[in-house]
């Protein structure tokens, strides 16, 4: 009894800046990050004895490393996602290698997009959450801005007004991204529709943390009500819109994201670049973030090309800039301009498809389902998908998009006789 009470007291004591609660629920210290790793010991022991490797041994080692990767904080060490680190290291290395020679530049600038697409395919196939793409996007923005300040501005070719415009563009992009990350609009059960709830102190790993809002995870048990003769049709609609995972009746155009693990109002798609879904509450902010980024990127690329290739036109300097590789600083800026152009081209295609979908009042999720089931009219090699379900004309569609409610209200249907 004494040992148990002492253990409880130790667990209830506040954590110091270097302590944390590990994934097994035990109290650990950052100084022991390289010691006592049973998962790694087991994997090495199997390798030394030439025993077959356990199917989940690698994932357990990675989970242990990710759990122990912490930084000191006031109320206990904070966990750092391991997927944040690779872009911080690999992007500057690749860009500096590409600046050594134009053939290396062609090789690197071709390999980097392919590697990113392969990693996207790998993570999307497993339906896993990762901060790699958000880290790559933010670090690319700040690293390009850093090179602009340290390499282009000292040349004297940029005025104070142009520097202020680029700085304002970067700031507006980040602010708009923060607003977008507040949440896409979650489908939540109403208290009147809930029979009871089961509360768990620890949320499951596949549920979006923004959905919980630092609260305890609750599993809802739907309210069973008796339905009359006219309730058969309504019950059928409810069953089709019922989400067995979130235990809610989804309103029209809402969908369940298997990556975030929650239902989203007017779900458009899950965007890996913001590590969140795009839905009713943040769709406009998402488009505004793309607009700010593209305007800033295009303007910054034009200023860089005018500085490193002053004798060439901006439109031709990206393809023909003689003697740019004679100086490493100019070559690095030219390589970054090419890298920014590749990113800008990809996001420009995303923005264009988003604007077209808004004009036809179609979400990306609805367009994908329509392509699969061949129930929509396709134009311009699939760039335009017109389902004809919600479209009420170009002007009316845009008015509806700009005035759609920001409130994340659940369905008005009651989940009766569903569970």
UniProtKB/TrEMBL annotation:
Residue stretches spanning the membrane: 103-122, 131-149, 161-180, 286-308, 328-352
Sequence ranges assigned to domain Palmitoyltransferase DHHC in this UniProt record: 239-367
Compartment(s) where it occurs, according to its Swiss-Prot or TrEMBL record: Golgi apparatus, trans-Golgi network membrane
One GO term describing the cellular component: Golgi apparatus
Keywords carried by this UniProt record: Acyltransferase, Golgi apparatus, Lipoprotein, Membrane, Palmitate, Transferase, Transmembrane, Transmembrane helix
Catalysed transformations (reactions): L-cysteinyl-[protein] + hexadecanoyl-CoA = S-hexadecanoyl-L-cysteinyl-[protein] + CoA
GO-annotated biological processes: protein targeting to membrane
Domain of life: Eukaryota
MF-aspect GO terms: protein-cysteine S-palmitoyltransferase activity
Enzyme Commission code: 2.3.1.225
Membrane topology value: Multi-pass membrane protein
Family: Belongs to the DHHC palmitoyltransferase family.
Domain remarks in the Swiss-Prot or TrEMBL record: The DHHC domain is required for palmitoyltransferase activity.
Official protein name in the record: Palmitoyltransferase
Organism: Sinocyclocheilus anshuiensis
């Amino acid at each position: 009894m004494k040992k148990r009470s002492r253990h409880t007291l130790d667990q209830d004591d506040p954590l110091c800046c270097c302590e944390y609660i590990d994934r097994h629920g035990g109290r650990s210290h950052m100084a022991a990050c390289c010691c006592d790793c049973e998962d790694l010991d087991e994997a090495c022991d199997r390798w030394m004895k030439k025993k077959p490797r356990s199917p989940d041994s690698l994932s357990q080692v990675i989970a242990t490393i990710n759990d122990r990767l912490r930084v000191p904080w006031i109320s206990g060490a904070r966990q750092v996602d391991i997927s944040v680190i690779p872009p911080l290291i690999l992007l500057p290395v690749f860009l500096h290698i590409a600046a050594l020679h134009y053939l290396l530049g062609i090789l690197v600038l071709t390999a980097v997009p392919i590697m990113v697409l392969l990693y996207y395919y790998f993570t999307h196939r497993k339906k896993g959450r990762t901060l790699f793409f958000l880290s790559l996007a933010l670090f690319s923005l700040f690293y390009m801005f850093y090179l602009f300040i340290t390499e282009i501005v000292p040349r004297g070719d940029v005025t104070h007004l142009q520097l202020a415009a680029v700085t304002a563009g970067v700031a507006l992009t980040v602010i708009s991204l923060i607003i977008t990350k507040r949440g896409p609009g979650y489908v939540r059960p109403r208290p009147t529709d809930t029979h009871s709830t089961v509360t768990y102190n620890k949320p499951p790993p596949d549920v979006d943390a923004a959905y919980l809002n630092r609260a305890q995870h609750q599993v809802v048990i739907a309210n069973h009500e008796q339905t009359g003769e006219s309730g058969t049709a309504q019950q059928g609609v409810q069953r089709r819109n019922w989400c067995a995972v979130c235990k809610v009746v989804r309103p029209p155009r809402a969908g369940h994201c298997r990556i975030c693990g929650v239902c989203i109002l007017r779900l458009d798609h899950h965007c890996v670049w913001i590590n969140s879904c795009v839905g009713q509450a943040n769709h406009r902010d998402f488009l505004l973030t793309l607009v700010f980024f593209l305007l800033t990127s295009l303007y910054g690329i034009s200023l860089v090309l005018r500085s490193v290739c002053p004798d060439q036109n901006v439109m031709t300097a990206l393809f023909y800039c003689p003697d740019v590789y004679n100086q490493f600083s100019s070559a690095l800026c030219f390589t970054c301009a090419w890298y920014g152009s590749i990113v800008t081209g990809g996001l420009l295609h995303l923005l264009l498809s988003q604007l077209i979908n808004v004009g036809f009042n179609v979400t990306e999720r609805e367009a994908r389902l329509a392509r699969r089931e061949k129930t929509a009219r396709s134009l311009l090699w699939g760039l335009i998908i017109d389902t004809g379900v919600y479209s009420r004309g170009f002007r009316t569609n845009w008015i509806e998009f700009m005035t759609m409610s920001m409130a994340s209200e659940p369905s008005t249907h009651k989940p009766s006789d569903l569970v």
